[in-house]
Amino acid sequence: MRRINDNFSNRVTDFKTMNTYTDNPEYSFHLHNNDLMERIVELREKNFREAVEYDYAPTDLEDALDSYEKVLEVVGDINANTIAPNAGDVDAEGSHCEDGRVRYAAKTAEDLDATVKAGLCGLTMPRQYGGLNLPFSVYTLANEIISSGDAGFENVWSLQDCIETLYSFGTEEQRRKYIPLVCNGATMSMDLTEPDAGSDLQSVTLKATFSEEDQCWRLNGVKRFITNGDSDLHLVLARSEEGTTDGRGLSMFLFDNRENKRLNGRELTVRRIENKLGIHGSPTCELVFRNARAEIVGDRRLGLIRYVMSLMNGARLGIAAQSVGIQQAAWEEAVAYARDRRQYGKEIMQFPAVFEMIARIKARLDAGRTLLYECAKYVDLYKILEYTSRERQLTPDERKEMKTYSRLADAFTPLAKGMNSEFSNQTTYDTIQIHGGSGYMQEYRCQRLYRDARITSIYEGTTQLQVVAALRYITNGTYLSLIREWDVDDERIKEMIARMEESVETVKSHGSQEVLDICGRSLYEMTAFTVMAVLLRRDSVRAPELFGKSFQVFLNLAQSEVARHADFVSHITPECVGNYKTVTPPSVIPL
Fold first, then answer.
1. Is the pTM of this model over 0.85?
2. Which pLDDT value is given to residue 199?
């Protein structure tokens, strides 16, 4: 059984001067100011019963929080002193495709080795399988920290989270066989998309056929845009039901690639690695399955309907964390450059045009981060209660609790993913602008952050899909009800809430799906900016020295955004929808 304490005793006494976690008090704030953490730990630790069996299991809430701090300190050390310094070399080298296999960039392999040796694998898995049993909130913090060092490496490292699907839906035999492998460093991937099936996963055609002779499933077909596509363990969405064409014919499979890689076999080959704009440390592969032996995960026909949705929600929370991590790195670059660069005899930080941009960057960072951890705590509770329900019957109150937090996690995930990915793009854009011409040069880190950020609003569901996912919670009043429960005591925020509610009612009054579609992005952003303003105000009351100024800057930004979107919504009617539908380029464009 792996013991994280062994890793701590070696590393904590030898910390270098830089540590991403301890150098940024905002991380500790969000760990310790989670108002659901006591309940999360109580359920996760089963009232601390495991302390008898595992000497590294916590004995009470204070001990648990201390353990989480130690894990995050190790993450912060490795990020600051290995992952972040390696990121430039990783970006320059990228991954390689050699004889149908992936070879990581040399520094990516070094990063992976460092995290495995530190015991930073299988973080959320139960101790009985070799995991650390960490809450998702803590794992999300680790994700964000690593993303601030190298978003491409974070993709490789964080795919360990795919094992949650096997833990949730696999057999006990599968859990005992595969979860310890991941806890000891086996890499993972989720193989969903295909050349003709991107966001439309119902169109997946990769075929799964049961072999009576071998008593196993065989996979045949092509997958495309697969992150970390030559991993040790693959979760594969495939068509198991002959003659079907929709999602009801899809099942989830696990393919163990370890022996295939050792023998350089032909059950799975990497046809090519995509030549991407950014995240070069993360190999994005086109894969060919040829009669590959696989195991079914869970029940047939539920691959897309149930299991992929579970995978995607976890992945979207991960991309939200990745986006915030990129913002953190960009903020640091912007501040460092603005303090170092002098024009007209003084630091450019002193120019209003610059410090206003930097203030907005920090405000968006703090607002997006508080939204991220609000979402993470909801995911925590609903997932823990779901796991608990497999071990014992939930009480009526617990069933009600699980239903509540499942709904909130489903509502907040598209807000956290969509807004933070958009913020990440805007922040890295602004950071290059602050650098001026230097920011356009390869020597500066900000250009890599800009390229890495661009994918965040695309993969694991575009921002447009996040809008669609959030709209039903906007129109049914879920967000408004929650905001009212938070009992906001700020006149400007109350005004934002009123304008948001008025806009929602205006759109609903038209009774037109097309109007709702056209106004969807505006309603989504109004909601998100309002929610973040409320959450950041709460943080500023608890820690004014960290968030007081940020809140005031964000409130100005949020109020103006809500007003802008409210004005747009007020002018959209069913009659003017046609203007949007018929805006097409002329058939002949003169040169």
1. yes
2. 79
Both tokens of 405, joined, read 């937090």
Span 356-372, mean pLDDT? Answer: 98
Buried b (16+ CB within 10 A) or exposed e, 291-311: ebbbbbbbeebbbbebbbebb
- Residue 555 inside a domain? The answer is yes
Q: Considering 301, 335, 364, which residue would you say is the last residue of a domain? A: 301
Summarised one tens digit per residue, pLDDT across range 169-180 is 999 999 999 999
Residue finishing a domain among 301, 326, 344: 301
What's the per-residue H, E or C state across 118-155?
A: CCCCCCCCCHHHCCCCCCHHHHHHHHHHHHHHCHHHHH
CA neighbor of 139 nearest in space, from 118, 153, 156, 125: 125
* Mean pLDDT in residue range 268-279: 97
Q: Parallel, antiparallel, or unpaired for β 188-191 and 233-239?
A: parallel
What's phi and psi for 287, nearest 5 deg? -115, 145
Q: By residue range, what is the domain housing residue 268? A: 188-301
Mean pLDDT of the chain: 94
DSSP 251-266: EEEEEE-HHHHHTT-S
- Spatial neighbors of 443 by CB under 8 A, at least 6 apart, are none
DSSP letter string, 520-539:
HHHHHHHHHHHHHHHHHHHH
